[in-house]
Design goal:
Keywords: Repeat, WD repeat. The chain has helices at about 305-310, 355-360; strands at about 10, 15, 25-30, 40-45, 45-55, 55-60, 90, 95-100, 105-110, 115, 120-125, 130-135, 140-155, 180-195, 205-210, 215-220, 220-225, 235-240, 250-255, 265-270, 275-280, 290, 315, 320-325, 330-335, 345, 370-375, 380-385, 390-395, 400-405, 420, 430, 445, 455-460, 460-465. By secondary structure, it is mostly beta strands. The chain has a single domain, classed as Methylamine Dehydrogenase, Chain H.
């Protein structure tokens, strides 16, 4: 999205037309804040766009069906609702609140290495005052941003005129008391901390600790612990780099702190394993407290087994009792008290198992899909190809495939479930597995912390779906 391009706000969706979309416009991360009032996206061009929810409250009887602009969708969840029948339903569009350039392209002259400006992750800090704080990171540098509002400006300076120029002291004959005058609301984003020069490899994860004093950043081989007040040093808590790099067998793919226990965190690996570490046990967590791994079925062993078992995302449930992991074909839910196998396994797109050879040739097999919990940990969501995304209800074991697409919907429409036909006769509403578009993929999704509102990033488009209230 160029600075001078008209960014479109069309009732719950922020879209950039394919006609002028560039590589820099591709959304690379999506994250709601702790209240769900703000939603941040980062893109490959190093920009952060923050959306704010308009304040609009109505009862269920008065709540209108959500009206969207031409070609955009409304999602009606056939999932457990968070609200009771007589509870107030809050409605309101998400509109652009602030846009700023978080990272710029850099060049490491010592290593002759180009550092991309792409935003890999965004993490919000809980709001403590009128301002908002968020962490954003590219491959090498983490930044802490303060986003604040200003609707007053001081006037009546003694030494400066109204345009800020210094006045001639000889012309100052009286003293004035400066006053604050109302002005148009202005949202400012300022970098408060820059945490740099601590990672040799690309940062793939950042996670804010529940003590809100520290956070960690993880790259392929190391995890560092930072204090928010100290930018020039970090503490290395995990280091899996072997003495001889030829002996390297796995890399760290994702890491996250426990939502309630500040001493506990997990990290996943390219071998499909998850390690739970306790920082009370030792300063360097080179020995894990728990090790989660599912034994491989020898009958399913293939050339691609190691690639598709690599975990691309790991997330603690809000309760802290479970861990969810995403590999190439499945989403798994693990109980912290059971290490030998997951308690739930959901097939995301098992129909691609026969296509692994062509997916390997076009590099799609290395795509890193994320996964998210809903606010009550009862439903999980993850992405797939053809702009499909999948939802799994943990209680009823029902699942649904939905599509984020402007072409297949009308205003006030309800998203229809999609089905993929593997072989045989194809029904009218089904799509053949051979017709799937692998260039359209849902890698990044987010779920509102307390309501049935989801954000889905489809290439350079952001879709926001919510429950339809009848």
């Amino acid at each position: 999205m160029e600075e001078d391009i008209d960014t479109r706000k069309i009732n719950n969706s922020f879209l950039r037309d394919h006609s002028y979309a560039t590589e820099a416009d591709i959304i690379s991360t999506v994250e709601f804040n702790h209240t769900g009032e703000l939603l941040a996206t980062g893109d490959k061009g190093g920009r952060v766009v923050i959306f704010q929810r308009e304040q609009e409250v109505c009862t269920e009887e008065q709540a209108p069906a959500v009206v969207l602009g031409s070609g955009l969708q409304v999602l009606k969840f056939n999932l457990p609702s968070f609200q009771s029948k007589n509870q107030v339903h809050r409605r309101g569009e998400y509109n652009v609140y602030s846009t700023f350039q978080s990272h710029e392209p850099e060049f490491d002259y010592l290593k002759s290495l180009e550092i991309e400006e792409k935003i890999n992750k965004i993490r919000w800090l809980p709001q403590q005052n009128a301002a908002y704080f968020l962490l954003s990171t590219n491959d090498k540098t983490v930044k802490l941003w303060k986003v604040s509002e200003r609707d007053k400006r001081p006037e009546g300076y003694n030494l400066k005129d109204e345009e800020g120029r210094l006045r001639d002291p000889a012309t100052i004959t009286t003293l004035r008391v400066p006053v604050l005058r109302p002005m148009d609301l202005m949202v400012e984003a300022t970098p408060r901390r820059v945490f740099a020069n601590a990672h040799t490899y690309h940062i793939n994860s950042i996670s804010v600790n529940s003590d809100y004093e520290t956070y960690m950043s993880a790259d392929d081989l190391r995890i560092n612990l930072w204090n928010f007040e100290i930018t020039n040093q970090s503490f290395n808590i995990v280091d899996i780099k072997p003495a001889n790099m030829e002996e390297l067998t796995e890399v760290i793919t994702a890491a996250e702190f426990h939502p309630h226990h500040c001493n506990t965190f997990v990290y996943s690996s390219s071998k499909g394993t998850i390690r739970l570490c306790d920082m009370r046990a030792s300063a360097l967590c080179d020995r894990h407290t728990k090790f989660f791994e599912e034994p491989e079925d020898p009958s399913n062993r293939s050339f691609f087994s190691e690639i598709i078992s690599s975990i691309s995302d790991v997330k603690f449930s809000h309760s802290g009792r479970y861990i969810m992991t995403r590999d190439y074909l499945t989403v798994k839910v693990w109980d912290l008290n059971m290490e030998n196998r997951p308690i739930e396994t959901y097939q995301v797109h098992d129909y691609l198992r026969s296509k692994l050879c062509s997916l390997y040739e076009n590099d799609c097999i290395f795509d890193k899909f994320e996964c998210v919990w809903n606010g009550s940990d009862s439903v999980i969501m993850t992405g797939s190809y053809n702009n499909f995304f999948r939802m799994f209800d943990r209680n009823t074991k029902r699942d649904v495939t939905l599509e984020a697409s402007r072409e297949n919907s009308k205003p006030r429409a309800i998203l229809k479930p999609r089905k993929v036909c593997v072989g045989g006769k194809r029904r009218k509403d089904e799509i053949s597995v051979d017709s799937l578009d692998f260039s359209k993929k849902i890698l990044h999704t987010a779920w509102h912390p307390s309501e049935n509102i989801i954000a889905v990033a489809a290439t350079n488009n952001l879709y926001i779906f919510q429950d339809k209230v009848n």
